[in-house]
Amino acid sequence: MDDQWLVVGLGNPGPGYAGNRHNVGHMVLAHLADELSASFKNHKANAAVAEGRSFGDAPKLILAKPNSFMNLSGGPVAALMRFYKIPVERLIVVHDELDIDFDSLKLKGGGGHGGHNGIRDIAAAVGSPDFTRVRVGIGRPPGRQPAADFVLRDFSGDERSVLPNLLSDAADAVALVASDGLEAAQQRFHSPR
């Protein structure tokens, strides 16, 4: 179908990871599903899937949270693209980004994986890096804390107080990419607030 998009939120499965910075992609999709009044159901592609439209004639959004660990996200994403017949141009991946300040978003089409193993695995599995990314800034770890430890820790109390606004902005960015295109979404969300 020409009017549907696959939106994948990256994260790790299980309640122990739910509040981690690395799981912000899952958090954005949960927020978006609430906005669409959609419920996640298990899909045979090893993912939880919800479907909905943000308004009457808006494109259909197929929201997916892979049930695999983030570094193995590619298999479920490729299976969902085959199942729903989604071309790579209509794939949006929402993920955490260390190189962007917390409470900021950057959107881009295609490009490298920037060291993000989830993005690397998806590009390999779908045979192309040419999908849209909604990069949710989580900032750099303080001091000498290893990045791997930082991303697997929960957001701080101060961060949690502004996190709902960040999740809402990311959800709005996804909907705007699908309805108006990447450039329109970049113009809205890359400008200083």
From TrEMBL:
Catalytic activity: an N-acyl-L-alpha-aminoacyl-tRNA + H2O = an N-acyl-L-amino acid + a tRNA + H(+)
Protein origin, superkingdom: Bacteria
GO CC field: cytoplasm
Annotated positions for site Stabilizes the basic form of H active site to accept a proton: D96
CDD domains: PTH
Residues marked Discriminates between blocked and unblocked aminoacyl-tRNA (site): N12
EC number: 3.1.1.29
Location in the cell: Cytoplasm
GO molecular function: peptidyl-tRNA hydrolase activity; tRNA binding
Residues annotated as catalytic: H22 (proton acceptor)
GO biological process: protein quality control for misfolded or incompletely synthesized proteins; rescue of stalled ribosome
Positions of tRNA binding: Y17, F69, N71, N117
Keywords recorded for this protein, A-Z: Cytoplasm, Hydrolase, RNA-binding, tRNA-binding
Gene3D superfamilies in alphabetical order: Peptidyl-tRNA hydrolase
InterPro entries (alphabetical): Pept_tRNA_hydro (IPR001328), Pept_tRNA_hydro_CS (IPR018171), Pept_tRNA_hydro_sf (IPR036416)
Role: Catalyzes the release of premature peptidyl moieties from peptidyl-tRNA molecules trapped in stalled 50S ribosomal subunits, and thus maintains levels of free tRNAs and 50S ribosomes. Hydrolyzes ribosome-free peptidyl-tRNAs (with 1 or more amino acids incorporated), which drop off the ribosome during protein synthesis, or as a result of ribosome stalling.
Family: Belongs to the PTH family.
Subunit structure: Monomer.
Protein name as it appears in the record: Peptidyl-tRNA hydrolase
Gene: pth
